[in-house]
Amino acid sequence: MPAGAPTTAAALNVFRFLPGYETNVVSTGKEPLLLLILSFLITFTLTRVYTRLARSRRWGSGSVAGVHLHHMVVGILIVLASGLVAIAVWPDGIGRELIAICFGAGAALTLDEFALSLYLRDVYWTPEGRTSIDATLTGVMLAGLLFVGVSPFGIHDDTVAPRLFGLVAIVVNVTLAAITFLKGKLALGIASIFVPLLGLVGAGRLATPGSPWSRWFYASRPGRLARARHRYEGGGTRTARFNRWFTDVIGGRPSEPSPIAPPAQDA
Question: What are the extents of the domains in the chain?
Fold first, then answer.
């Protein structure tokens, strides 16, 4: 058993009825992370179910003193409270797992309205609101990779490769991941950090319109910019159409036009 790993008696051991759960999850100290992921997924699912029902049945939004209370605000408060307790007390066993559950729920509420904080306006049901789904899927994927024990950049402590080879592999992987991020592929960029050479896929594909890579390198190449817009905005490929369909299934199809941003005022 790893040092510091909780014993079965000091853990919730929620799924003790599953074969191997205590050995592979509880004894290795992974139950808090598993509970965080489950809390995140359950909260996100219930939130999306409610918002889609409210949208279709035209329910009013919750408000405090006439101000619309976004559930992102509640999520931020939960995350802050969870972090404060964890830093101040750092509970063990069941306390740590309860903190993980609260943090997962707060993170789900926050990421579900991630696009609102990014665009600084209510874009929940607009095309820009798909950014919240991307952020949510990225968070789940990152937590899942940590749960299964995948090491960043694929480098393990017990590697037998020469140190120079390992250094070169890390530099190449970081470079590919950075290019993938710059091309606007957040989820693939996160995955490439943990899976060696996966960044080759993101680095070799077209950048999304509006991404830093597109602004830097496609401005003087109208043909490539047109291809990127056709692929990602027009749904020109099967992958793009599947991504759009999958996002609609999870978050609901956008029905409102993108709000026009207010004109910038000179200082």
Answer: 1-149
Least trusted range by pLDDT, from 147-151, 213-217, 228-232: 147-151
Backbone angles phi, psi at 244, to 5 degrees: -65, -45
What distance in Å separates the CA atoms of residue 10 and residue 93, rounded to the nearest whole number?
5
Q: For residues 180 and 199, is the Cβ–Cβ distance under 8 A?
A: yes
Measure the CA–CA gap between 108 and 36, rounded to whole angstroms. 10
pLDDT digits (tens, 9 = 90+) for 26-71: 888 899 999 999 999 999 999 999 999 998 888 877 777 667 789 9
Contact 112, 71 (CB under 8 A): yes
Tokens of 255: 């029905």
With a CB cutoff of 8 Å and minimum separation 6, the contacts of 214 are 183, 184, 207, 208, 225, 228
